[in-house]
Sequence to fold (354 residues):
Amino acid sequence: MEFLSYNNHVLSLGLKQKSLWPLAEKYTSPVYIYDLDFLADRAQKLQKAFAARKGLLSPLQVFYAMKANSNIEVLKTLKNQGCGADVVSAGEILRAKEAGIDGAQMVYSGVGKTVRELTLALENKVDQINIESLPELLRIIDIVKQRPQLGPAQVALRINPDISIETHPYITTGLKENKFGMEISLIPELVQVLKDNLPSVTLVGLSLHLGSQMLELSSFDDALLKMKAIYLDLQKSFSTLQRFDFGGGLGIFYDRSDLALEESLLQDYAKIVEKHFADMPVQLQTEPGRWLVGHAGVLLTQVQYIKKTPHKTFAIVDTGMHHLMRPSLYQSEHRILPLKTTASSLQAEYDAKE
Ligand SMILES: *Cc1c(COP(=O)(O)O)cnc(C)c1O
Fold:
């Protein structure tokens, strides 16, 4: 299961091994290329891995975290695979709609939701607003009280379980010092506010997102244990609470072209969810981003100059960090591969640092 491979010395992408060379000739460099068949396959793999867990009573709902890549064709492809969208702004709500995803297939996350954005979300009947703070909940209640026809707002509480995952510190979100979600000790107060404002807001779910690029799942396991107890406890007060959103964050292997390890990680991931939620009448939801799209695209760039200094030799390309931010944002690794590996091509070691 190689998704990047060489055929006759030319790099090809996707499970059908589509050659990238004709595209490099056709389009002006730099250009992003996506393999939409591969993307569709990823969505199916995720859904199938959970469908295979017989202890889970209903199919997993997938909300693509569109901050990972909001290209319209990417969105349409995932929509056709039955995915909804995890949105974090008015712009993302509108973009998702443009791709044919309507509010009923959206969950709305993010710590900084403005009045305008929340109003837009409610006007579009966004299915679930994942509440990140008490002031946000009060803001939603306020909006619905002023315009009752927008209610009831369907909300989920995003709880911060104070659990660390093994990833880069810039992309953890589930620790008490992170700005995301609400601390467990705030729950009694949230419950009171929800009860006092029942016609305006309905508690439909509990949500979690631990961070990104998880390649080790023991913290996820610990977090689900904590969250399940909270879920069952909250259900005693709210019969409308039927959903558990375990967030995104499943990692991918950037240094490999084969998917075998990811396949087994995915199986483990589904097994952990099954372990905690087996035989429970709960609607499970997930918000993957990176896992769906990370391998489905490449950025083609052309070397413009070989620049030699007394210290180093640089290959200067016609792209930059604005086209591929991840490596500069948090020192991540990103593979750079030649499009052709023929003997005539310049083979040497170049410096890719700025
Ligand atoms: C970023 C984010 C995701 C997706 O994370 P990935 O690591 O790309 O799967 C999901 N939910 C929320 C709330 C996020 O901020």
Notes: The pocket of pyridoxal-5'-phosphate is lined by residues 65, 67-68, 86, 109, 209, 212, 247-250, 287-291 (CB under 6 Å).
